[in-house]
Amino acid sequence: MAPDSLAAALTATAGAVLAAVLLSATWDHGAGTRRAALRTVTTALCLATALAAAGIWINRQVDTVTTWSALLGRDTSTAATADPAPAGATGGRIVTFTATGTASGLTLAVHAYLPAAYDRQPTARFPVIEALHGYPGSPASWLNRLAAAHHLDQEIVAGRMAPTVVLFPPQTPHALLDTECTNLAHGPQAETFLTVDVPTAAETHLRVRTDRAGWGLIGYSAGGYCAANLALRHPERYATAASLSGYADPGITIGDGTEHTLNDDAWRLRHLPNPAVALYLSAGRADRKAHRDADTLTHLARPPLCVTTVYVDGGGHSMSVWEAAEDPAFDWLSGWLGRPVG
Amino acid sequence: MPPTGLPLLILVGVTATGAAAVTVRTWRRHRLRWQVLTRPAAVLLTEALVLLTVGLAANRAEGFYPTWADLLPAHATRHDTGPARPGHLDHWITAQARRAPTTPVAFPWHPPRGNRWPVTAAPTVVVPADYPLHPTWRYPVVTVLADHATPAQEAAAARTVEDRTAATIVVFAHLRATATVDTLTETLPDSLARDLRVTTHSWALIAPADVAGLAGAVVRAAPTRYPALALLEDTPEPAADVVPADLPTTETVTVVRAPQRHPGPAADQLPTALLWACQQTPPPLSAPAPLIPPPPQHRHTHPSRTAPPTGH
């Protein structure tokens, strides 16, 4: 029973109800110190089960903690090997490989969507998109809540997207540690993992293009910031990136002050030469900060940087906005990436 | 009352406080048999209202769900992509393709005011055979700067590419060495976009090494239009200064040299360069899916498909 399963949510809810019943039933039992202790314990149990139930229901929405070991702060490599949603019978499939962090020191499992053409064309090398999740979240959010495999199958069959390998790497070794895909001064080197170790592992385990023309990024919320920031910081690695409701800054303390400079996209566009990459910035109109930041980046962008903005009418900072935006974003990215070769 | 509104937050917060107060006041009021129901119900209701208050406060601060509709899943309405805006030459190309459906359509291109271009001859455009079959697709372009190739060599090279990779439009520009950068970054792309369904970016450029200077200036001026550059060398010996200096770091460059045993003119390396250049471009694709719900569609009158192409 995984912590993001319906069974866990229902069990936790039942536990909260039972705790309330226990509190009511035992309130008048005993006397003196014993009664006080019993009341204290049952009241604490009541609060704990209510919070646990709420937390598990929220976790089901964001797929942050997918195994109990991840909840205890252990390495998410185990979490990432949880069974992902299978792709359709006639569509692509999901595989998992391990990215050994020779550069970053992080060794984590990475899910990958392989299009149906991957098996039909056994010598071809495919373009790649790294899909980055939000915080709180995990790669399972893309596969479960956003049904990425289904959407990718649909867009490829419709001829709006080329057959593409899509990677779903974790951005942190600990589910509750927010790295914003940066190299934390005294923490995980997430940026190095995502831009060096994951591409190296993908090129080792999968038939993917190795050149810049074949690599792009996409992400929602914190992952959206990650996608845009990594593309601006590594234009020699990525040709394009799509940010769905991403902010222009990481919103965390990195430890070396770069959250105000090199890892602040608006600062980069103001103070550094703009690279020749293509950015797709999408946000709900009611998502004030994401909308404002997308506007800011658009106004700061100078050639050769290309920026395309797409705003979803209404829409906040939620999965429904990102599910609405993922199809156009994947299609747009594919139009900027090199084709499958070989 | 929107889910991010202060009135709702206050209402739920006050209700939670009231529920807690009522729970305390009525804790012993009912008979024992009813307490089994009323006490747990009161505790659970209070807990739920407190959690809801916290949730609404978080939603108000972060703007996750600004409206009640945002709590619902996105409407799963799908829309097929309509035809791309047709190029002025689409109808004529369709007619040509009927005669030889599996052969690329190659023709001398005479765009409006093309006689003012700095060319030695009208550019040759090679359109893939499947172009008429996919009216929703937009095609990437490979521009060959000044290839010194004969028309027969151009056609043969284009056929080789068509056989070995997916469709791409090839333009043999036949530019003079004195041509300016604007011709390749603005004039030619703008004219081609009027006449054919082409993408606006991610093209590739092929140039003989003797005009590498012009090619370098072009990719410096338009690195997203031409992110890939192939230079043709007619000698097998590496020449250190073939690749122009100060190209953008994002530029992908290759030098296609004559084979060691069969050195020859640069045009002989054209099929190899074309194949490489095509692989750097995206495949032809339909326009991206519309957003859900899609933005309002404004009807445009399409240009006439029956007008004959200029020069034909």
How is this structure best described in words?
The complex is a heterodimer of chains A (342) and B (312). Chain A is built from 12 helices and 8 strands. The longest helix of chain A is centred in the N-terminal third of the chain and has 31 residues. Chain A starts with 5 loop residues before the first helix and ends in an 8-residue tail after the last helix. With 312 residues, chain B is of the alpha/beta class. Chain B folds into 2 domains: 57 residues; 202 residues, Rossmann fold (3-Layer(aba) Sandwich), CATH 3.40.50. In chain B, 36% of the residues lie in helices and 11% in strands. In chain B, the strands form 2 sheets. A 7-stranded mixed beta sheet of chain B has the order 1-2-5-4-6-7-8, sandwiched between helices. Chain B has a two-stranded antiparallel sheet with strand order 3-9. The C terminus of chain B is likely disordered. Classes of the chains: A alpha/beta (342), B alpha/beta (312).
CATH level 4 superfamily of the largest domain in chain A? Alpha/Beta hydrolase fold, catalytic domain
Mean pLDDT of chain A: 90
End-to-end Cα distance of chain B, whole Å, is: 65 Å
Number of DSSP helical runs of chain B? 7
Which chains have the largest interface? A-B, 63 and 58 residues
Tell me what the CATH architecture of the largest domain in chain A is.
3-Layer(aba) Sandwich
- Please give the CATH class of the largest domain in chain A: Alpha Beta
